[in-house]
Amino acid sequence: MKALVTGAKGQLGTALQATAPEGWQVVGVDLAEMDLADPQAIRDVVTREAPDVLFSAGAYTAVDKAESEPDIAQAVNGDAVGHMAQALAAITGGRLVQVSTDFIFDGTRSTPYPVDAEPNPLSVYGATKLSGEAQAGDGAIICRTSWVYAAGGANFVRTMLRLMAERDALSVVSDQIGAPTLATGLAQTLWSLSAVGKPGTFHYQDAGVASWYDFAVAIQEEALALGMLERAIPITPIRTADYPTPATRPAYSVLDTRDTRALTGLPAIHWRTNLRTMLKEEQQLG
């Protein structure tokens, strides 16, 4: 069996390659091998590799920058998914596994979002990812997730570690609630969903909930315990209104993951446990 992974050098793409089940041949491609904004490049790579499963992990993820680059965000997050689905259908009949986001929701709920909740994206990024869901096709597996991070990647955890080492104090938004997600667990879930083979939409996050402020406090506490930081600094909770950004983010984006966990049989691991795991991996990277 053969899998093609887009965004192979990113956090999730790297994790998908690292967690591949025995017996799978995995081919990873990134921008240099397959420009997601180029329909012909997509068709050429799918034709050449003829995968049984295509993990669509590559994306335009610069949420704020997307507000000023809607066309390229749509090409990569939306239209590219349609081109991949069409190429698979025409060439191999393989399965598309599309990774989507909690940002397709508007954050007005106060209980976890089920998969059939009405989407209402607040940003260009969210709208383009929703377009990708629509273009994935009825036979696709769509998995929404949030706040993805991994050792060695470009993410909130590593940014916080750097700022905590450089600054004397930090202010972090406390009124956006969601759940951090370690890329390794997400990758394992995507492989499991692929093995089950049931098309449809699924949700996956690490267990538990947090604000960005909660996440930052935990990062500092865990990093101090591991000796990754020399001192603690004050972290002040602030409102979203105090930290304006070009893109509007949902205030609440906790996803209901119960059906996904029941289907895959994978354990629910709390985000703080996975944070500790990631920090130890980061420490080993030096």
From TrEMBL:
State the needed cofactors, names only.
Mg(2+)
Q: Name one GO molecular function term.
A: dTDP-4-dehydrorhamnose reductase activity
Q: What is its EC number?
A: 1.1.1.133
Asked whether the UniProt record includes ATP-binding among its keywords, one would answer no
Which Gene Ontology BP terms does the record give? dTDP-rhamnose biosynthetic process
What is catalyzed by this enzyme? dTDP-beta-L-rhamnose + NADP(+) = dTDP-4-dehydro-beta-L-rhamnose + NADPH + H(+)
Q: Which GO terms describe its cellular component?
A: cytosol
**Which top-level enzyme class is recorded in the Swiss-Prot or TrEMBL entry?**
oxidoreductase
InterPro entries with a match to the protein in the record: dTDP_dehydrorham_reduct, NAD(P)-bd_dom_sf, RmlD-like-bd
Keywords annotated in UniProt: NADP, Oxidoreductase
Task: Indicate what this protein is called per its UniProt record.
Answer: dTDP-4-dehydrorhamnose reductase
Q: Which organism is it from?
A: Paraurantiacibacter namhicola
User: What would be the name of the gene that encodes this protein?
Assistant: rmlD
